[in-house]
Amino acid sequence: MSLWTMQEAVTATGGRAQGNWSVDGISIDTRTLTPGDLFVALTAARDGHDFVAQALASGAGAALVSRVPDGVDANAPLLIVDNVLHGLEALGRVARARCDARVVAVTGSVGKTSTKEMLARMLSDQGRTHAAVASYNNHWGVPLTLARMPRDTEFAVVEIGMNHPGEIAPLAIQARPHVALITTVAAVHLEAFDDVAGIAREKAAVLQGLEPGGVAVLNGDIAEAGVLREVALQQGVKSWWFGSKDKEYQLISAVIQGEETLAQARVMGRDIEMHIQSLGAHFAMNALGALACVAALGADLDKALHSLALWSPVKGRGAREEIHLRGGKILLLDDSYNANPTSMAAALEVLAATPGSGRRVAYLGDMKELGPDEIALHTALARHPSVLAVDQIHCIGPLMQHLHSALPEAKQGTWYQTSAEVLADLPTQIQGGDIVLAKGSLSIALAKIVDGIRNLGHAGPTPIITK
């Protein structure tokens, strides 16, 4: 059965169709478009209408547009609406309404995407599961995720993010989750908020979208837990708490054993053991919150624990990979996708705790959107206890220059303005046996450094993936 017939799409959007078509998927990017997709001509950095002809030539089943683009045949298969984004939102709302799936929404300052992927892995072994792709969590990513949802979906995992106040509630209302998880609240996007409490209130706005009888799964260990509790009470929703003590979902211990984190937890009075293919207590805490969501959705907890042990991270979010050099092999910790003070501290803890007798080397890039305290927050990393176990820290970006200056001289690597400047020095900075971390905000492009490290040798036949 098609994802969308022409008539269904017309009825959903109130648009006007050309041709007689149906589509099996939805795409916003001609580079990843699959034949049979509906191409959505969104306007962002570029006007998607400029790519409609290319999309149709590549096999798109139709295109969602607000006008007939130049170079497109007058009879081309199109769905013409007043506003393309509003048309996509309408498809998302109807797709959600026509589906009986149990839906979980995931938000939080840190850990959204990895927790979303954990949930998708656990639920996919218990029913037909649909989940957001990559970090599609904004004003177009959420409706796109919903519009792509097959009508026979049994579980859905929707990731919801924000940069500014007022963004989360409308997306949560579109998703209409049965369960909403807030992983944590941290000093992220402070340039748009007065304080962290303001961030907590914005994250808690996800509760506005909960279906009647829905469950909020909340982190009880964070300083802003009181804010979350207050909002949950105001919304009149049931709350399940996870954390390190006196919670329905309690993390008792988390220790690194070889290439995994072994965690002991108590769940509704029952003792359980979690095997997580990533290193660090923060991943164990996210996994605990994910397990609470599984239970709240009515899925089987024992099956979920088995599936959790088989989960692996995505590129740039803590994936671990062995790189073979002539002088031996190095272990690369690729956490290059994003960074904030909380996740940076956690990454340094993982680097310090990773088993191995070689040097520990870090490439740290600027943390963006931290507001007026950005310099102090970068400088403060020099005082993090895990820095004691790191042998050398190279810093990338103008803000990280402040960390570089604050580091003990013995640990100071080189400061660089950009990631591209690092590449020429990699052969002399890294040696066999090293454990190497790359971590920074996406705009600093530490992925270039990750690729440069890979190019020093050749990847092992079976990369170790553990986030």
Secondary structure elements and their pairing?
Layout: E1 4-5, H1 6-13, E2 16-18, E3 22-23, E4 25-27, E5 37-40, H2 52-57, E6 62-65, E7 78-80, H3 84-97, E8 102-107, H4 112-124, E9 129-131, H5 141-147, E10 155-159, H6 168-175, E11 179-182, H7 196-204, E12 215-219, H8 225-235, E13 238-243, E14 249-257, E15 260-267, E16 270-276, H9 281-296, H10 301-308, E17 319-325, E18 328-335, H11 341-353, E19 360-365, H12 374-380, E20 392-396, H13 400-406, E21 412-416, H14 426-429, E22 435-439, H15 447-454, E23 458-459
Parallel strand pairs: 4-5, 5-6, 6-7, 8-10, 8-11, 9-10, 11-12, 12-13, 13-14, 18-22, 19-20, 19-22, 20-21
Antiparallel strand pairs: 1-3, 2-7, 14-15, 15-16, 17-18, 17-23
Helix pairs in contact: 3-5, 4-9, 4-10, 7-8, 9-10, 12-13
GO molecular function: ATP binding; UDP-N-acetylmuramoyl-tripeptide-D-alanyl-D-alanine ligase activity; UDP-N-acetylmuramoylalanyl-D-glutamyl-2,6-diaminopimelate-D-alanyl-D-alanine ligase activity
Domain Mur ligase C-terminal: 328-441
Organism: Parasedimentitalea marina
